[in-house]
Amino acid sequence: MRVLIRTELTLKPLFFHSFPQESALAAFAAPSQFQIRPATSGDLSSVAQIIAESFHHQNGLFGWLFPLLRLGIYEDLRHRLTSPVPHHICLVAVDMSADTTSNIVGTVELGMRFSDSWMQIGKSFPYLSNLAVNPQYRRQGAASGLLKACEKVSLSWGFQDLYLHVLENNNQARQLYFKLGYQEHRVESHLNIFFLKRSRQILLRKRLNADLGI
Fold this sequence. Notes:
Aminopeptidase; 5 helices; 8 strands
């Protein structure tokens, strides 16, 4: 079943800081199950929970650490979103068909990252991070809606490229990114990959096309 995403990015609900590009962030008119909007102060607990569940285990030997990890995520997120940074936003996907008060099912952050290449010292680019979706809502279009909204915001900031990292062994995420037009830009190599036998990180890039209204 195809899920259409209604993206509302007027940015008026933002309690952190506002942006002047409201006209460039017009909402998609199509009705849908999910609404994509900027996060508010009341969303932080739900956002921290979703991120913690997506990247950390609640059970097992270190399960007792989960509440501390969630609290750390909450505080880090609150600090980032209250800092006066011109190019940073946290988006959430809201299930409009849910009858619960806490119906946030996904989240993503978009900010700026400086290049680590000596040939591009001082150059920054839009970077997508912390894409996380409640396991019960995966493969239903929430992640795609969040990614497309980030592309729209990046264009409104005046950028035509968007970057993100994905683990080499995360096949499900890689398939999603490739389906949406991301391409492999660089494979990261670090010492801990060899000594700790961790999966390599792949930097993906997507060229955004303003003419297509992405």
